[in-house]
Amino acid sequence: MLAYVGKAYLITVDIEDFFPSINTLQTRQVFLVEPFSFPKPMAASLSRLCTYEDRLPQGAPTSPII
Prior knowledge:
Layout: H1 24-32, H2 40-50
Helix pairs in contact: 1-2
């Protein structure tokens, strides 16, 4: 069951430009720690694959997970 079902209020927020505010270095850090814990070269390669022009693109399937 969803936690908000039956509640009186539901508040949603949208942080303006959230995804583009995350850069390649920040995504690299995600890949270096749990649950991934990839080696540095692999984390660097994955972060470059998941970013575009040093930004996390909105709408990419990888963006919400990162």
